Each structure stands twice: as C-alpha cells, then as structure tokens.
Amino acid sequence: MSDSHSSIAATGPADPRAIEEARKHVRTYLIVGVALLCGTLLTVWASLINFGSREINIALALLIASTKGFLVAGFFMHLISEKKMIYAVLSCTVFFFAALMYLTIFSMSHGSIVQIR
Fold this sequence. Notes:
Layout: H1 2-11, H2 16-47, H3 54-76, H4 84-107
Helix pairs in contact: 2-3
C-alpha cells in the first residue's frame, strides 16, 4: 500500500504543457460541436425552402450531411491525423457514398425505372 502512495507522490503536479495541450483539444472540440449544431440548423432551414426541385433539396441536404460527417470523422474519430491506410479506406468510403448519392438523385429523375414520389 505504501508503494502506491509513493508512486503517486513521485509524479508531482501536472505538466503545464499537457494542460495547455488539453485546453487546445477541448477548444477544438467545442468549435467542431458548434459547427455541427450550425450544420443541423442549416439542414432544417434548407428543408423549409423550396429550391425549385426536390433533387436540389436532397443534394443540398446530402452536402450538409457530408460536411457534418467529415467533421465527426475527422475530429472526434481523429482521422485527420491518421496514416495512409486509413486515408485509403476513407477514400473508398467517400467514393461509394458519392455513388449512392448519385443513385439516389438518378432514381428521382423522370426517365429512371424507379419513381419515388
């Protein structure tokens, strides 16, 4: 039991550089959180506006959602500072996500086989 107390006492006070680094991270997380909140409000605002066609509304909503997804993946999941393999997997995900967005918008065109109303 005395060993655990001596190891705690040996560490001493917290490193000021570590505290400052933690404050930077907390500040970044707060900024990203506010950006996500603004993105949510922007999505709700954009859903109330008629841009002339349903496809434009969907494309705008998907663009806002993609931006918010990038913020979450980049900052909260720490993908911004990852290695090449993570970027390769992430780029494949972006490619397939873009393909699914295209298929969604394509399925709503007048000449497509599937008609969503």
